[in-house]
Structure formats: C-alpha cells, structure tokens
Fold:
Amino acid sequence: MGHQRPSNKLKIKQGDKKIETKIVIRAKAEDAKFIGTSMGGGLVVVKDALSGEILDKGMIKGSTGDTKLIMEKPWLRGIKLADENTACFVAKIDIDEPKLLEIIVYAPYGQPQATAKASVTTWVVPGKHIEGDGIILDFPGLVVRVTEPSAHTFWTVPNKIRLAVSVTPMCGCPVDMKTYWPPDAYEVATFIKRNGLQIEKRVLSFCGKTNCYAMEIEINEPGDYEFIVYAYDPKTGNTGVDKTTIVATK
Structure:
C-alpha cells in the first residue's frame, strides 16, 4: 500500500460551529501614550461592518503604559508597545465564519469637550484571536479644558479676568519642563468675542504648574464675552479647543 497523505481539512463539529474570538483593542494618543482609566478610558463598539449589528461593546481600562518604552526606545518590528497593565478592551464575539468588523472607539471618554472618534475595519476568522498589542487606534489632538473663569459668570467692568486652561496630550500625560511634553512645544491662545463679534486674539503663557497656561485680560466694556481657547503643536499638528463665556455689566 502506498503512503497516505495527511488530511489538510480542518474538522468542524456539527452543532458547535460558533467560536468565541477575542480581539484586544487599544487607543493611543498621537505623540504620547495610551489612553487609559485616568482619562476616562474609551468606549468601544464592535459591529458587523456590513449589517451594522453590534457584536460587543465595552470600556477601555488600564494604565497609559510604559513611558520609556513608548517615548524613548525605537519602535522595531515585532516589539510590543503594551504590557499586561496597559489599557485595553478585549472584545469577544461568537462567529462561525470570517466576518468583516467595524471597530469604533470614542476617547478620551472622561473629557467630553475633547472626545474624538476613531474607527477601523478588519477581517476576523473564528478562533483566530487578535491579541498582544492587538488593534491600536491612534487619536490625534490635545485635551484643552478651561479652568477659569467658569461659564456664564457675571463680572462688573472695568475688571481684570484671569483666563486659565489645562492642556495635555489625549492620554493626560503631563505638560511640564521635566517631561516629554515641554510647555514651549505648544502654542496656546484665545480668540475673544464680544456680543458675537471677534475683537482680538491673545496668547497664554505657561503658568509654572503642570498643564497650566494662563493670562490676565482687561475687560472695560459691558457685553457677552466668549473665549475660544486652542492649543496647537506645530510639529505634529495636534490641536485641541475649549470655550467659556462671561457676562460683563456696569
């Protein structure tokens, strides 16, 4: 008898065709670290890309990752950026045949004024898990949050108002002299509007505290004022915006 060739057919059990398949999903800030629990994580929605059916959803949780590994070491092929504590969501879907998925992430979820949406489509095969670093979605932008003055406060004129904002990468990493995100890397300024008309643009300066930029503005005329504050990184194009308003009266 001749030598029999081994079968190259994969056996599928009848009545047990659907297989749980795991997909690790992460959100990473452009020019910074992973978006984790400290910034509210990220909401993940996994859909059938063709039918729109939601197959799984949940929150990205965990740490922002190893700073030196992400920010210092060269990114060589095959080197993992994430460790066991790095923020992720593990989607679990039951499928019986290859399926085209749409993965949507909203992050950073704890900062509504800066929350962005990123998505990707990918094929998944039953039982062929996507693990390790998994699928990483990049989030360009900066988180800008006005801390002073609070919205719709009333001031009498003439007066001096302190405008202060917090600026960070999307991961919440610290902007300071001794970090990878020095204050002078960012242009921070505000457009000032009175009664709906733009009257001037002013630059804010680093105030010496982590993430903080501030300035004093003289308000001499009554009216409804709006401050549209932006931060911009000319090297990466990362941009963030927040707003506040005051009412000035005599």
Summary: The CA atoms of residues 157 and 221 lie 6 Å apart. The helical segments are 67-71. The domain at 142-249 is CATH 2.60.40.10 (Immunoglobulin-like). Residues 67-71 form the longest helix (5 residues).
